[in-house]
Write a structure and sequence with these properties.
alpha+beta; four-stranded mixed β-sheet; four-stranded antiparallel β-sheet
């Protein structure tokens, strides 16, 4: 993955023959935050950055300063380009030494007492976590070495909640489908190396957790919200829907829907805010036009005699509320 502009690497500066005295003065004045010794970001940039940008800077600082660093877990997923449910909590590195595993407190420092320095201290930084893992053949992604796609997916499916695991596993399934390794209508469980990896897990509980996620993981799930939704359906005991079902009427093609429950004939849509407010997801139309088209699309599907239910992030984070919406739409739990 690309590192956003703004990370100041003093070793790289010194290699150009330029001194770093000005940087150290700026740090002492509170104008720079120090992520690790030798790595800085301007204080105002740190405050205004997104969590994803701050995580990228922190990961780069750690990977460049730890000899032989190999990313694992959700940090490896980030480097590979797999989606995650929320930002990782730590920068995870693999280690083969049992005595080294564990979390190291973040060495993040910002000096000064002005408003910017105080605000910077309130923004979370990312500690380093060493995880005990055997690394056979690390894969390079840009400047980073990480566990491979299959290893990373197996690790997350075995160790994380179903919601976190399915987001990553669906992303892996999309990549593997695009690479020609699995058909669109298959689950991740259909791949031999996934099955072998799960069966090789040392604990039955981890294997069961991973098998559950792999059996649900599909290339047809197109967003983090859709994957998260399917994990919550499973938690609530509802039947898994058909994904990306195409609908048409006498006027022609209507569209593809996130979810379709054939019995009782209900369409479900995850209503993420992005498809209305992010220009890239609106396809060049205004937000108002996007809302209008979505309403027309729903009306045309309803005119076919189907039910329709929508949910948002807030409903996924409050499963009882989502359960009530699904039951009201006529969808029954298993």
């Amino acid at each position: 993955m690309e590192i956003p502009p703004g990370l100041i690497d003093t070793a790289a500066i010194l290699r150009t023959g330029v001194g770093t005295d000005a940087l150290h003065r700026a740090f002492k004045a509170g104008q720079l935050v120090r992520l690790r010794r030798g790595f800085y970001v301007r204080t105002n940039d740190w405050i205004s950055a997104t969590p994803a940008q701050r995580f990228a800077w922190s990961t780069a600082a750690i990977a460049r300063s730890v000899s032989g660093a190999v990313l694992c877990g959700q940090t490896a997923a980030w480097a590979i380009g797999l989606p995650t449910l929320g930002d990782p909590q730590c920068v995870e590195l693999a280690t083969s030494l049992p005595g080294r595993s564990g979390i190291r407190k973040s060495p993040f420092v910002v000096l000064g007492t002005d408003k910017a320095a105080r605000e910077a201290r309130e923004v979370r930084s990312y500690p380093l976590q060493y995880r005990l893992k055997q690394v056979h053949e690390p894969v390079r992604h840009g400047e980073f070495l990480s566990l491979g796609l299959v290893e990373t997916t197996l690790d997350i499916m075995a160790t994380r909640s179903l919601s976190q695991a399915l987001v990553v596993a669906d992303g892996a399934a999309r990549k593997l489908h695009k690479a020609g390794r699995m058909p669109a209508d298959a689950s991740l469980w259909s791949l031999q190396d996934i099955r072998d990896g799960i069966r090789a897990l040392p604990h039955a509980s981890a294997a069961a957790r991973a098998e559950r996620a792999a059996s649900l993981a599909s290339p047809l799930s197109e967003s983090v919200g859709e994957s998260y939704s399917r994990a919550v359906f499973e938690f609530l005991g509802f039947e898994q829907p058909v994904l990306q079902r195409t609908f048409a009427d006498r006027e022609g093609f209507i569209g593809r829907t996130d979810c379709w429950w054939p019995n009782p004939g209900v369409v479900g849509e995850f209503d993420g805010k992005g498809k209305y407010v992010q220009a890239a997801l609106r396809g060049g139309i205004t937000a108002e036009e996007a809302v209008y088209r979505e309403k027309i699309r729903e009306d045309r599907i309803r005119s076919l005699g189907h039910g329709f239910v929508r949910w948002r992030w807030a409903d996924l984070q409050n499963p009882d509320r989502l359960r009530a919406k699904l039951l009201a739409a006529g969808i029954r739990s298993r």
